[in-house]
Amino acid sequence: MSTVLYIKANAKPEGTSRTFRIADKFIETYKEHHPDDEIITLDLYKEGINFLSEEGIMMHMPKPGEGRNHPILKYAYQFLEADKYVFAEPLWNLGIPAILKAYIDYICVTTVTFKYTAEGPVGLCQGKKAINITARGGEYSEGKFAAWEMGDKYLRTILGFLGVTDFTTISADNLDVIGQDVEAVVGNAIKKAQELAEKF
C-alpha cells in the first residue's frame, strides 16, 4: 500500500479552479485503480500555511525525530513518510503561489528531508515520485515564453534537491488567451490526468 500526499495550492473555492478540476479527476481515477492506497489531502489555504517564523527557522536543524508534532516540522515528516506526491497549483505571475513556496520552506528541513555531506546536499526522499498539475493563462510549455515559466521548473528542481527525480507534469495552457476553447483544453488535460493516474 502506498501513501499519496495531495497538495492543493489555490485560493479559489471548490468548483471554480480549473487546476483542481483536473487534479481532482486525477485523484478520483487514481482511487479507482489503487483502492488500497491512502490519499492524504493537504489544502494549504485550509491548513493556514504561513511564512516561517523565527521559531520555525530555529527548528530547521532538528535532532532525529525531534519536532515530529511541531506545528511546522510535522509537515516535513509527513512529506518524508509519503510515497507519492500530487501537486496542484496555478501559474501565478510566472511562478507558484506564495503559499506553496511557504509550504516548501516547511518541508525542506535538514536531517529530515535532506542532509549535508562532505560532497554537498543529499535528498532523503529518494525512490518516491511526483506529478505536478498546473493551469496557465498563456503558452508556457513551448515557444518563446517557455523560458519565463518558473513554477513547474522550481518544483521539479526543489523536489530533485530532496531526492524526488521521478517528476511528471500535466499542464493546461492558454486558458486566458482570447478565442481559446478553454473547455477543450481542460478536457484534454483531464484525459491525460486520467491516463497517468492509472499507472502512477
Features:
alpha/beta; five-stranded parallel sheet; 200 residues; Rossmann fold; two-stranded antiparallel ribbon
| Arrangement of strands in the largest sheet | 2-1-3-6-7
Oligomer, anyone? single chain
Instruction: List the secondary-structure elements in sequence, H or E.
Output: EHEHHHEHEEEHEH
CATH architecture type: 3-Layer(aba) Sandwich
User: Any idea what the CATH superfamily is called?
Assistant: Flavodoxin domain
Number of domains: 1
Please report the number of helical segments: 7
Low-pLDDT stretches: none
**What amount of the residues lies in strands?**
15-25%
Structural class: alpha/beta
CATH topology: Rossmann fold
Mean pLDDT comes to: 92
By DSSP, the count of extended strands is: 7
- Termini gap: 13 Å
Q: Output the CATH class name.
A: Alpha Beta
Instruction: Tell me roughly what share of residues is in helical segments.
Output: 25-40%
Rg, nearest Å: 17 Å
Major β-sheet profile = 5 strands, parallel
Principal-axis shape? globular
SSE blueprint:
Elements: E1 3-8, H1 18-33, E2 38-43, H2 44-47, H3 54-58, H4 74-81, E3 84-90, H5 98-107, E4 114-117, E5 120-123, E6 129-135, H6 152-161, E7 166-172, H7 182-199
